[in-house]
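Journal club prep — side note

Before the paper discussion, L.F. wants everyone to see what a predicted structure for a comparable chain looks like in token form. Sequence:
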Amino acid sequence: MTKSLVVAILTFASLGVYYRSAENDAGRGFVEDTNTVAEARRAARGAALAGVNVAKEGLAESWRSGVYVGRYEGAKYTASSLVKDERAAVRSIGRAFRPGAKTINYELRVDIYRRLREAAARDSLSDRGKYSYRIRPVATGSG
């Protein structure tokens, strides 16, 4: 009876150690996967924001529609601006790639308005630009 009790205790203890280590391994994989997704989402969001900034620079140089493609911190972005009168609609999509998984996309849409600055138009010595720009987010990012 004592031998079978010792064998049962050792069996349950070894099963407990085995299942505890398996649970830790499974949890560690989940945490690593969650961190990978969060990092990819951050990279995609950063790339989308970089695309908006590049489009703003392009609009500041010349107020016309354009497409901008590039990379930012390992992620890709595609930004486009569509100009109509004094309004430009900018759409930027950041794409981050996870190893062995699907692509994470993050999209930002922004409206940029320009209007003639009265003070700058009257004062030809002003070193400011002739236009003021107002940026309004159309929608928050999605991804």
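L.F.'s comment for the group: The first helix runs from residue 2 to 61. Keep this in mind when we get to the figures.
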